[in-house]
Amino acid sequence: MTPANALSLVRRLAADEDRCEFYQPVLDELPRHSLDSDDLLEIIQSELGEVHCYRSAPTEKYHPATTSDYYSIWVEECRAHMFLKLLVGKASDGGDLLVITSFKKDTRT
Asked: CB-side exposure of 56: number of CA atoms within 13 Å?
C-alpha cells in the first residue's frame, strides 16, 4: 500500500531530529527494547518501505487535517513485528514535522 505521507519526505525528516516529535509512549517503549530515538529514526530512514504500510487514515487526535500511516515492520532488536504509526504535521515555524505517535509490538501478527 502506498502511504499517504510520502516516504521520501518521511525519510528526509527522520534524518533531522529537530524535525521529529515523539509521543511519550514511544519514548517509554524504546528502552524496553534497548533502543533510543536515534535507533528508531535509523529504522525509518533505512528499513521502512511501502510494503510495510497497511493502512492510512485521517488522524483522530492532536494534529487535525493530517493523515496517519500505519506500519508493521520486523525489528530485529525487538525480535518482533512492531507497529509504527506516524504522520507529517506542521512545526511551529511552519515547516514539516515528522510525528511518531506509536511504536509497540504488533499484536496482529
From this structure: 15
